[in-house]
């Protein structure tokens, strides 16, 4: 019997790391080189198929600027998953990951699935954060990890889908997250 799931998903990190571009690539298959700074939040939806189950991701792209932090924190609540994003060519964005992670853990469900994402892998020649540093931070903090490129689409699909797979597997134990499960034509269960 196939099921349908709906999960709330957030994208967090410093301004300019490519959060909005990740969302656009995943939901619309397009790259926008120049993007206005997100004020508050932006929203996107995409439904994917995981093991013959329909999984609808309601994705909230949060502003990275400190002045919007109080607004974006309210979107952490009931999120089943998150991408914690830094720019591999900007060291300070990686250095801020501990603060972003602490913020997420303080304001979101304790069992939210989080993937650390190093964006802009297409600019590896300008890299200031090694893959090993990202892997180490993720391992030390119990996070999934992947490097991606919003420009080339490298690993974009995989980052969202792998996180969604973990959310789907763990949905039964996560009563605090926005999760709806539809069984066949029977409606909400």
TrEMBL record:
Q: Which sequence ranges are marked TM in the entry? A: none
Determine the domain of life of the protein's source: Eukaryota
Q: Which GO terms describe its molecular function?
A: GTP binding; GTPase activity
Q: Name one GO cellular component term.
A: Golgi apparatus
Q: Which GO terms describe its biological process?
A: vesicle-mediated transport
Which Pfam families does the entry link to? Ras
Q: Kindly state which keywords UniProt assigns to this record, in alphabetical order.
A: GTP-binding, Nucleotide-binding
Q: Where is the signal peptide?
A: none
What Gene3D superfamilies is this protein classified in? P-loop containing nucleotide triphosphate hydrolases
- Family recorded in the similarity comment: Belongs to the small GTPase superfamily. Rab family.
Q: What is this protein called?
A: RAB GTPase-like protein A1D
What is the native source organism of this protein? Answer: Medicago truncatula (Barrel medic)
